[in-house]
């Protein structure tokens, strides 16, 4: 799309947003239209993340902007959700970069780090001058992080880390990686800086999804980390899982942006594509698909909006996030597939957005908890029975 998108608001949902929230949303929407969309096709094709956008996002105040630390813009969680929506309107890779940076790395340092760690890293990460990664998932332990095998052993003034992580966003471009490892029988988190002896990374090749996201395998071979790099308050699996709620929150919002981008492009296409003497938009079957798409989108957006208000009121629970993440990604996949269908053969070309979003969303159904894991979280909240094994 060559012009700033208007958004699809058939249900008048903008009336639920404050002027400040609308202003923040529109500033990010403009950024995406002006600086992301002109380069998204080529970068997705090449499997490249445009790292130069990190500092631009920093100047906008959207990297960890919802966190409370000195010089933070401290935007609301509702506004933060709208930021994720607009970033993923451009591409999941852009949204994923921002949410890992803010929701996982910066929040971990703010919540669990020492004052010295916060002073060193938070301003640099917020500005985009430094890039962070969050390393929890292992080759043999994705949905079962409690059995991770990466270990850290205390040795004098250092911790020696040995193990591996995989599917780590920003892994090979990160200046600092938060690495979760088992230490003296308990999960702990460590700040591992780029260039540390024994730390290496390789990007995962051949991805058909999330191509604009740097996704890496990390190896730690007797990696010596100074004791000062231990996050002192990060203790146990619960410390790790609490951070994932913010990341899942971001995905629930981002999926709405992907769906809206697909619907907008489908509407533009069927309004200008003429067959049998009239635009495709004039045919009943096409209008039926458009109606299905906007219904899916409206439901997902309402879910995201209410999730934002629950978060701001302090009443958001983990199963609320699971419902939103699981349901909104599923709805967005449906919208993307219908948009691809309406574009016909053109729908498989990367000149158009739907197939790219559709491919990205397939990964979103797995990232930060599979559909099945979230189903079990929701099921436990309703029945009282945990059935994860």
Q: Can you tell me the residue ranges where pLDDT is under 50 for at least 5 consecutive residues?
A: none
Question: What structural class is derived from the secondary structure elements?
Answer: alpha+beta
Order of strands in the sheet with the most strands? 1-4-5-8
* Order of SSEs: HHHHHEEEEEEEEHEEHHHH
Which outline best applies?
A: globular
Query: Beta-sheet strand percentage?
Result: 15-25%
Major sheet summary line = 4 strands, mixed
Whole-number average pLDDT?
95
Question: How many helices?
Answer: 10
Q: What's the count of strands?
A: 10
> How far do the termini sit from each other?
46 Å
Cα-atom radius of gyration: 21 Å
Q: Name the helicity range.
A: 40-55%
